[in-house]
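Intended use. Records like the one below are meant for learning the mapping from a protein sequence to its folded structure. Do not use them to infer anything beyond what is encoded.
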Amino acid sequence: MRFERTGFLKRYGLLLVLIVMVCVSVLLSPLFLTPQNVVNLLTQVSFVGIIAVGMTTVILTGGIDLSVGSIVGFSSILFATMMHGNLFTFMPDEMFIYAGMQDLTPLLPLPFNLFVVLVAGALIGLVSGALSFSLKIHSFIITLGMMIFVRGLGRSYTDGQPLFGVPPYISWLAYGSILGVPTPVVLWIVIVVVAAFVLKYTRYGRRIYAVGGDEEAARLSGIQPALYRITPFVVSGVCAALVGLMMSGRMAAGDPKIAEGWELDAIGAVVIGGTALQGGKGSLVGTTIGVLIVGIVVNVMNLLGIADYPQQMVKGMLIIAAVALQNLIARFGREHER
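Structure written out for the chain above:
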């Protein structure tokens, strides 16, 4: 009976936590379930939610990606720069003006500009993954260095200032809607569904779990670990670059300072969602619930007028509690097997 309870908690415990949090939130603030607040909540969490999809694939292999926040900022700058038809010379007098006040001369047609930004994010992820795998250095160290480098690159290029001039129609990525559902939410749902299908039903996804669970056993079974250690960082870079594009539309500018700390929010959501930091265990369903849990906590505290710093304290305690609960459930399961 004890094991059955443990199995139930492992399967549905996170969902129960989400349900309880929704009920408590309704009691704490009558504004929580209003349509406007629900839409705002889902829109706000979708940005970190998309980053968390890429982060999940990385953590499933036992890695971690601290560079995603920097990639968001750099991608927004890169897109704004390309819309000005200029890549190599920064001209403040021309770029520090608001959208609609000048004729833009895009470097390439819009689809190609978007593609280049996504490729840039993929390349940053590729470098991180390749360096970590080839040098046998944990990705924490590699992506920490990449985080600092990319953030510094963006700030050096713009002297720490935003680049205005992003065309208004890009704001659709942040403020538009599809069949009445906000565009960021739609993009998040599509990415989660596609990535979850790949991880669960394709050979590539199953091998991600295999390499993350036991790389040596995977190698002995004929799996080449390099591909499955490196490509998750590419996925993570693309997800971060997409959010960078969305944020440039949200602010009508590229800004090297945006998304600071978002890598920690994404990691926290993945961990709360039950993905093991040592790799091999986890799911995007859990990550999605983890994103919603963190988002609900922040949303309710905002509705109650709680300041930002106490919110950070609560998020930190939430991550610790989630990891402790995972370890407790895992220990109960091992004791029963004995």
